[in-house]
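LOG
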Amino acid sequence: MSENHLYNTLFKANETNKKNFLINNFQEVTFKDFHEIVNCIANLFLKKGLLPGDRVAVQAEKNNLQLAIYVATVKAGGVYLPLNTGYTTSELQYFIEDAEPKIFVIDEIKKENINSISSKKDTVIYTLNKDESGTLKENLLNQSKQFTPIDRDKDDLAAILYTSGTTGKSKGAMLTHKNLSSNAQVLKDAWKFSEDDVLLHMLPIYHTHGLFVACNLLSLVGGSMIFLEKFDASEAIKWMPKVTTMMGVPTFYTRLLANEELNHELTKNVRLFISGSAPLLAETHIEFEKRTAKKILERYGMTETNMNISNPYQGERKPGTVGKPLPGIDIRIVDEKGRHITGKDIGVIELKGDNVFSGYWKLEDKTKESFSNDGYFITGDLATRDDDGYFTIVGRDKDMIISGGLNVYPKEIETIINEISQVNESAVFGINHKDFGEAVVAAVVFNDTSNILSEEDILEKLYDKLAKFKQPKKIFFLDHLPRNSMGKVQKNKLRQVYKDYFIN
């Protein structure tokens, strides 16, 4: 038998399964049919010269065929490189030049934009449109539906995911067969997934959450996915009675709560709601449980590691926390000098486990500085740990504001602002200041435009809850906070907009 570690672990068992794997408003695809498409793609890629370790890049709208490209790339020995559909041509140029993909699959409307770029790198280009039309599908017609997996070891690369860092060029996180297979197996046990599960899948599949957490997990257990193009509250409501699980980002849950149809009866068959990729407000936890009698399970992961920490499937799920370390993952909190913090003080999360990536593509120096001397990955995420061992993420070290020589952690201030009844959400960040170096400022969104507060009103409510140096020196009122496709607030954009406020 061929020894392709990731394929054999996650996908092989269901190659001939006639159960529905992918379901949407237009079609139902069985595991067997899906794997026949996978084999056709794998055969095509090999005929085009794909060698073990070669990269296959994809920038296309979510559909069944795109998911098949991922599995086919793994099966054919390649390295899968999903790219955010929002990337511009100049950004694509960087990825092509950096990753040097052998094959690039892209939406037809964007193909002309990259022809001149890709030709320099001898890249084979196929088109894939939202409706699955394009040259990729055309070239599959005469391909064999049989394919023997190419041998790949557990330490070989399976994927590269470029991080969405707020500064500098994106870094390609290299994920091995072991990284991805081990995490899926851990989550299967932690979250009690089985072949009986039907997952409501509305996440993008260019991100670790939607691709590796969701799709790998359901492939491993032989479960089904309601595989929808994107999140839509009315579509989610329509499919909810037919699913057992749902994965989402906080925005999904707040939008569901805005729909009057969300109630206990609608969600009675759902055993598990999971949230991640951005912090979920405690109020959202509480309101969702009140409406559905279901407690959202919040977890913590990142591009470089997939999932690290999770609230328990059985046991207390604490709002505002991301839970405890998953089995096999060693986690510690350290101070700025790398000393282990055992109390409740804020420090940086460092972790070690089979899920941790092998490094950044072509960035040996960056890889080296991202790991401690004893091999722990330095996440850059700031956290506290309570007496019960539950972690709370309080921000990122790069989000930390140094005002007048004093460290200010935005999450602390955001939590207090968000407790004000008229406030829907807030974002605290630092901008240049002549006297303090950085000034603490806040962007605030109200939940009801007819019931708003003044800047003075908010500051008065913070007066006795925060030390003076932590209190915002300016509050900006916005209709909404800028977010990326995974629901994370883009503070870098806020910093850019207001960077000269105290300078001019």
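LOG (cont.) second protein
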Amino acid sequence: MTDERKNGREAQISNIRAAVNIAETVRSTLGPAGMDKMLVDEQGHTIVTNDGVTILRELDTAHPGAKMMVGISQTQEQVCKDGTTSVVVLGGQMLALSEGLLLRGIHPQTIVRAYNRASVIALEGVEAQRLTASKSAGDELAVAKTALRGKATESHLEDAASLCVEVSTAVEGDLDRVRIITQAGGSMKDSYWNAGLILSKDFADPTVADDKAFKDARILLLDGGLEGFDFSDVQMQVTDPAQLQQIKDEEFQMLGHAAQEISNRCDVLFVRDGVHEAVVKYLSAKGVAVVSRLQQSDMDALTRITGASCYHRFTDAEENQLTVMGSVIKRERIGDLDYVSVMVPDATVVTMVVRGATRQTLDEYERAFDDALGVVCLYMGDTGDGVLAGGGAALSKASVAVRKHAQDQSGLSARERMCLEAYADSLEIVPAAIANNAGMDPLDVVMELRSCPHHHGLYIDDDGVGSVCDTFEQGVVEPTQLIRQIITSATEVATAILRIDDIVARKG
């Protein structure tokens, strides 16, 4: 952003066009027939994806209006895991049509009030379309398949969707209990899940666990390291080599004492940071396995699954008080790499192992599974919300409800009516974009959807051929909360941008 101040109509149009440009960037990725984007950084590293939030996260956006659009995509990701492209496309269309209203002399506050009024009508239209809330396995499978359509996993749709439902059921809809690791080699069909924790780490000394499993293990978790003295913030002047040797001797003495004490306290040591080679060697000789340089998420998961506390100092842990009965800790080979698996009875954490041919494919698989798991867990966690027919059906019927309200309310001014109709037109952008990306005429699809009964949306079959039909019967369904969040967030960002009439550079 430049230091030049923009105000009034100039500021409004600047924000609107920046937001619309963001929406247009991801519009072609929408739907089962959506295209991919290749993102290339300065080092030549590439990401090929059609995941909306991933694309927007990687964009170099400086305009504040554009950043607001990226923000709603990230919010959608946090709340619902899916719909990150739809919310941006919808918000962008609301703003694109509002520009025409502004140029016709309609005050932005009039547009804002009309949009807020329309969103209430649209949400009521969505509620009227809710279908089964049985939380049956069939519904969950349909939700998973819908979320996975158009993504890298689509060639293995049945297997991928079934895997998502199995994992979601195992964690009772709690996405925080799911961990995903990826390993190149094999295919998606080789993916599986375990009730327990699989760490993307091998033992510091692999020989300690050769053909051995640690059962009923004493476990010690350290939030720190055992690497010796930290001299990073210390300035020392050593004039005698003997002084240096004395420091080294003291360091080894300290590490030796630590290793001895730790060997009395545990069978397996998990450490957040590094562990000195001498400590690893000593502990291995005592039959104690070490797993070091773990991520914080690994430590949190270990705490959750084992019930053990994470200590800053090993001296805080009491001897023989950390036994995890029924635990089995061992090396597990996946592909050509070794991992550490931690299995306990009634595990509260589930690990999903995703396989694929290449790293790029695996990255897309992981994004697809993350989205689908999130949507299924969202559906399982909602009470009584049920599902909506997919393929733009819900938004299309919400548009019909808003348009009917605009036509039926006699007390509306001509300007208010125009704003409501613009909002109704905006809601049709999602099915229109899905149609366009599938090579269909978007106008024909939109007009056909307007006259169709409830639950009719645009269905794209396995051959990429689209047709307007009852998408619920075709198994294309979405959680009600997902669509509700898309409408709410898109309206909020559009009205927020419309309220801005001044762009001023601030200090710092």
